[in-house]
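Sync notes, pocket subgroup
Present: LS, DG
LS reminded everyone that the earlier model was apo-only. Rerun requested with arginine included. Inputs:
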Amino acid sequence: GGRAALAQTLWEQSALKQILKRGELRVGMEAGYMPFEMRDKSGKIVGFDVDLARLMARYMGVKLNLVNTQWDGIIPALLTAKFDLLMSGMTITPERNLQVNFADPYVSIGQTVLIRKGLIGTISKREQLDDAKYVIATKLGTTGDIAARKYFAKARFKAFETEAEAVLEVRNGRADGFVYDLPFNTIYAGRYPGEVGFLNETFTDEPIGWAIRKGDPDFLNWLNNFLRVIRADGSYDALYQKWFQS
Ligand code: ARG
């Protein structure tokens, strides 16, 4: 019959079916976004997304292959099947959702600001940075970049390819502020106390989700139920504690 044949065709073409057949889950991410995906001292990619990907691969009974991919090409790389799944601390936005599908959010974040040392004491509220005399550093193509241009419309901007370059600009005093996701800025501020100031009150609310190619209901169903199961059995909480409570 038509319906059974259609279901069979969808499943045969599902990324999940391909993963099982290949015996390998390929996950796209851009290392550099603490604590989701970053390099440890030996250069290995580690983080919250990495541990979740490892758990996922274990349930699938396949090997895990992390595909490090530049942020500006990360959605095109998913669409051209350079990997099966995008796990990269990506904010779910309606615009991105026109190109890809998202599994249910697994964490929420908001935008915050790191300020240069010389402004500590002078600037205590983000509103004060909305001034033509200030230069804001951002990472290109992120929700931080979009939010910065909206909330600091009067300021001037310097956008960078990586968060590392953008935040260094503030630490070196060449920019006044760096607008980025709370988890990253929290870790950075903790690592360089006294060298940067931290306005840690979030001014956006952003759900974060894993992205897959459109037209794949079987994979989407698996991912959402995986999330449900690991939330229920405590393994999600254990990993969250590991990466966010230090
Ligand atoms: N949440 C932000 C966004 O979606 C930044 C994510 C950056 N992720 C990364 N792995 N570099 O735009």
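DG: Residues 29-30, 32-33, 36-37, 71, 88-91, 142-143, 181 surround arginine (CB under 6 Å).
LS: The chain has a mean pLDDT of 97.
Action: DG to write up.
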